[in-house]
Amino acid sequence: MLDALSHLALExxxxxxxxxxxxxxxxxxxxxxxxxxVAFSLGGGDRRDDGTTQLILRRxxxxxxxxxxxxxxxxxxxAAYEGWLExxxxxxxxxxxxxxxxxxxxxxxxxxxxxxGGLADGxxxxxxxxxxxxxxxxxxxxxxxxxxxxLGFETVDRGDERRRVRLRSPFGLDLELWEPQLxxxxxxxxxxVDLAFDAGDPDGAADAIDRWVCERERVxxxxxxxxxxxxxxxxxRASR
Length: 240
Hints:
The protein has four helices and 16 strands. The protein has 240 residues and is of the alpha+beta class. The longest helix has 11 residues, at 15-25.
């Protein structure tokens, strides 16, 4: 039903400060800039129609605003991971091991918890090649699990006392649904997170979760809905 993560938007207070962190510390190159947004393309291309995922930094000027205190994860190669540890050493990264790979955690200037996991293919010169995880804060865990399962996500893990659920998409993105809590590195699930997905049938994707949708609107060649927790989900037909 869904083919790829099209974008993740983060709310930032000062665009120049946020831009500096993602350019200078994380090595990303802006591909689009306006007075209220800066976009970066991940995955090797330099345009959205290359099939890349966009990370968008957005000042609060319209709806959807972009997510607050979002915990999300970049992928890099195992060989490049040590380089990221050294590059970000002055930020005192917290590190954890998950089976076959390690991840480090740092906070950006707007309190988003940025994870970098060494689980992608490639050599030591590989940068940040994609987003493999986004954490959403939800009120009703069972309801949210049903909603995202209807979009094709499969439950792969449950936390202690069922206070969090991890779901996996067919295209490699994991969504973590958390009741309000602090996670690793004191991360929190994001609120009013703005996510967009490539979908072969945007209206069909919206129809699949219509019973839970609070708002629905046409956006160009796609459909934008709001889930019961205020997260914005846009389904777009990618031009590739």
